[in-house]
Design a protein that fits this description.
The protein has 132 residues and is mainly beta. The protein has one helix and twelve strands. It is globular. The two termini are 24 Å apart. The chain binds thymidine-5'-diphosphate. Thymidine-5'-diphosphate binds next to strand 4 and strand 5. The site of thymidine-5'-diphosphate has 6 residues, from strand 4 and strand 5.
């Protein structure tokens, strides 16, 4: 339920994945920023925050990683391992990324520009806000 699958054009030259905005609802927000994480490697964990308003869609363009999603009541671990599947990270969802493969390139589409004041980096504060 967290994934959006994108059209993959496959032929004997390889695969081509298409992400079109504002067309089929697969990206449920206007994209204002794209960022990449790579070079994390095994043993590294990242994230450990939630966003007050930001909506995101994350792809492993290469390799894989495990993402923990926590809405303050339930947490779930999902593997991100396909370049044609986008993982929805909604606002007010605590997320952590673990178990990066050496070749992992995590591409994230985001609904707004970078704004540190949108981050909740303290888990207790997140739990209090998520409870409201
Ligand atoms: P951080 O949010 O700590 O990364 P992660 O969630 O993967 O653990 O971001 C690392 C640094 O990069 C931090 O100083 C903030 C900065 N940054 C930007 O300047 N712009 C951005 O779009 C993002 C995502 C981070």
């Amino acid at each position: 339920m967290h994934y959006s699958d994108f059209v993959s054009r496959v032929d004997n030259r390889g695969k081509l994945v298409v992400v079109e905005f504002g067309r089929d609802g697969a990206v449920p927000f206007e994209v204002r920023r794209i960022y990449f994480i790579y070079g994390a490697g095994p043993g590294v964990s990242r994230g450990f925050h939630a966003h007050r308003n930001l909506e995101q869609l994350a792809f492993t363009v290469s390799g894989h990683c495990r993402v923990r999603l926590d809405d303050g009541r339930n947490s779930e671990d999902v593997w991100l391992n396909s370049p044609s599947s986008g993982l929805r990270i909604e606002k007010m969802v605590w997320h952590e990324m673990h178990d990066f493969s050496e070749d992992c390139v995590l591409m994230v589409l985001a609904s707004d520009h970078y704004d540190e004041s949108d981050y909740i980096r303290d888990y207790k504060e997140f739990q209090t806000l998520a409870d409201c």
